[in-house]
Each structure stands twice: as structure tokens, then as C-alpha cells.
Amino acid sequence: QVRLVESGGGLAQAGGSLRLSCVTSGRAFSNYAIGWFRQAPGKEREFLAAISWTGGRTYYADSVKGRFTISRDIAENTVYLQMNSLKPEDTAIYYCALDQSGTVLIGRIRPGLYNWGQGTQVTVSS
Prior knowledge:
The chain has 126 residues and is an all-beta fold. The chain has strands at 3-7, 10-13, 18-25, 33-39, 46-52, 58-60, 68-73, 78-83, 92-99, 115-116, 120-125. Strand 5 (46-52) and strand 6 (58-60) form a beta hairpin. The chain starts with a strand and ends with a strand.
């Protein structure tokens, strides 16, 4: 059973930074990828970034390129999302998800097939 647990959310000021963590456990196929998503009140869940577990290949949504960086620590089974230059519109619940197929890395987003964490709240004040 795959399990993902996010942490690192909280309150930040505009222009500040936060680093989110996603600890994974359980069995998964070797070519899987981990993605970060967010959902603001009244909005649909939005893809942000993804990383392949074995090769470290990354893929970003245009909306966060240059501000957010995804990385992973294989020894710690953890994927990170470093968020810089935060804006009030970044306020949302942030989720990590495991894509067994890895196709999230080519922009094929299929949330219904992913394993999800419980989410962590990020609030950015102006």
C-alpha cells in the first residue's frame, strides 16, 4: 500500500519562501513519478511540478517555472517542493501524488489514477 505524507505548509509573507516535503512509503513500480498539486478554495486542483523517482527528470507547469523547484532525496524517500517569491495567490492546500506510470512527466495528468497524500495548507499573506 502506497502512502504519502506532506508537511512543511504554514503561513508565509508575500515574497517569502517555504519548502514542502512529501515522504513516501509502500511499494510502487520503478518508473513512477511524484507530482505536486494544489487546490485553492473554489478552484480545481492544479498541477505544479513532477519528478521521476529513479532518474530525477522534472516537469513544471508554466505558472511556477522559475519560482518553484522540485527535488528528491532517495535515501529519505522524500520529495521536496521549494517555493520562492511566494504570492497571495499561491494560497492553497498542497498535495503530493504518486503516478505509477510516470506519464505526468510528459504532461499527461490523470489525477484519478494517482495515490494522494492528505495535503498541507499554505497561506501567503500580502
